[in-house]
Amino acid sequence: MLEVRSLSHSYAQKPVLRDVSVALRRGRITVLLGPSGCGKTTLLRLVAGLLPLQAGQVMIDGQPPVPGRNTAMLFQDSRLLPWRRVSENLSIQLQSLPARDRPARIAALLQRVGLSDHAQSWPEELSGGQQQRLAMARLLATDAPLLLMDERFAALDGFARERLQDETRHLASEGSGRGILFVTHSIDEALLLGDEVLVLANGSALPQDLHALTERRSDFATLAADRAAILDRMRMHRSGA
C-alpha cells in the first residue's frame, strides 16, 4: 500500500534524508527507529503529505498522500481542541457520518479507549494518558488506510503505554487492516510493535530483519538478541560504517 522511493530531503542545504525507500503492506507495522534529530519526523511528515517533496516519490495505493483522506497522523502532542469537550473532539472527525449516527459512534469509540465516563469532560480535565487515548480515538474515527504515529507513548506511564501499544497492534490487524508507520527512539518499543524495523541514522534507513517476530515476542532470549543486533546497527550507522 505504501511505497516510498529514493526519498531525499534537506533543510537549508543540510541533508536530513538520503535516498530512503520504505514499503509497507496493509495489516503491518513498520517502525522507524533512531536517535533524536535523525530525520524520523521529517520522513513521517513527507509521507503524510505535510511537507513538499524535494526528491523521490511517495505513493499510497498508487496515489500521492492527501492528509485526512489516505493518511492520518498522530503527532508527539495530542493536538486536542481545548475549547471543545471530549465528545466534540471526536464529532469533528465524524462529519462524513449522518448527524443521527454520530452519538452511537462516539460512544463506541470512547468505550474502546476506556473513556466512556469522560464524554462531557474538557481535555484539560484529562490526565496525560487519557489525552493520548482520546487522540487514539480520533485516529480510530478516520477511514485513512495509512496511520502515522510520531513518538506516541514516550511520556506515558507503563500501564497507559501498554494499553495503547495493544490498541496499535489491534488497529493494524482488525478488518481489512491498515498500514501503520510508527516512529520511536525506544528499541524495546520497536521490538514489541514492529513487523519490520528500519534503523534511521545519518539520513539513511537500513532494514533490521525481524522475521517471524510476531510468534517470538514472548521469547525473552530472542528479543534480547534482536535488541543487541539493532544496537549494533545503530552504532554502525552513527559511525558512518
From TrEMBL:
Organism listed in the record: Paracoccus shanxieyensis
PANTHER family: ALIPHATIC SULFONATES IMPORT ATP-BINDING PROTEIN SSUB, TAURINE IMPORT ATP-BINDING PROTEIN-RELATED
Pfam families, alphabetized: ABC_tran (PF00005)
Alphabetically ordered keywords of this record: ATP-binding, Nucleotide-binding, Transport
A molecular-function term among this protein's GO annotations: ATP hydrolysis activity
Domain of life assignment: Bacteria
Family of this protein: Belongs to the ABC transporter superfamily.
Protein name per the record: ATP-binding cassette domain-containing protein
Gene3D superfamilies associated with the record: P-loop containing nucleotide triphosphate hydrolases
Residue span(s) of domain ABC transporter: 2-227
